Amino acid sequence: MFQRVGYETTCVVTSDEAQEQLRVGAFDLLLLDVFVESHNTLDDLQGYRDLAPHVPVAIMTAGQLDNPDASAESLNKARRARVNFLLPKPFYFDDVKQICGDVDTYWSHIDASKQAVAS
């Protein structure tokens, strides 16, 4: 869905891979799935922010089969951690399109403020 909006995507399956990508590349948005195998990526959120301090974060989750409250708990934890976007599954193309528009606006304001400071 993000590619359909025009974003180039990089997919990783572990926290270590994600952190390595953040060390070597620049990203406009960090999209994290909360539950990857038995690990909760929200536990690593500060590490991601340290590696990409100004990059907006989107959190997506569907929960866990053995814990019906896990999805709500995770989304609330993400909200309290001040992530930029919440994407409860299933989400739709319009949701992704809206987030990408918000991210584009965010970066255009960042770029404009850099130009104003540089002037």
TrEMBL record:
Residue numbers carrying 4-aspartylphosphate: 33
Domain of life: Bacteria
Claim: Phosphoprotein is one of the keywords in the record: yes
One record GO biological process: phosphorelay signal transduction system
Xref: PROSITE patterns: RESPONSE_REGULATORY (PS50110)
Keyword list, A-Z: Phosphoprotein
Biological source species: Asticcacaulis benevestitus DSM 16100 = ATCC BAA-896
Name under which the protein is recorded: Response regulatory domain-containing protein
Keyword Phosphoprotein set for record: yes
Domain Response regulatory positions: 1-104
InterPro entries recorded: CheY-like_superfamily, Sig_transdc_resp-reg_receiver
